[in-house]
Amino acid sequence: MLKTFDLVLIGVMTATAAVTYTIKHRAELKLEEVHRLEAEIKLEKDTIDLLKADWALQSQPNRLERLVNAYNAELQLQPTDSTALVHAKELPMLKSEVPVPDVTEAKAGAKGATVASAKGATGKAQPLPMPAPRGATQQRGVVADEADEIETGSVE
Predict the structure, then answer these.
(1) Quick check: 141 and 127 in contact, CB under 8 A?
(2) Which pTM was predicted?
(3) In angstroms, rounded to a whole number, what is the distance separating the alpha carbons of residues 70 and 64?
(4) Which regions form coiled coils (predicted)?
(5) What pLDDT does residue 96 have?
């Protein structure tokens, strides 16, 4: 009876040793991976620092002034007028704010247009509704803003 108990203990010790070795091996692999990733991160940080230094060199005002003077005849650069700048509210809306057209209405409109053209009916196209920019109110085809008013055009 003592011999079977000894054999069971030897088996448990062998299994425990195998599990311990497996865990140790996995931990060493993970440590190597961590060291590799740290080396990659250091390389990327060094590259970023190098690129920042290069950008600082390339964008020095003295260097840019020399280049402008050297290539002024070819480039014909002019200072930007203050009237060429726009306010953020004058920019077109974001793509995410553009309304999605209804496919069924477009198909019905296309069928109606072919029927009207087949009958020889001519008429002025209806103006398309334009979404108002942020901070503006919509009034009958005209977008009223604090500074200026813009009329919506018709599609012809």
Answers:
(1) yes
(2) 0.41
(3) 10
(4) 27-54
(5) 76
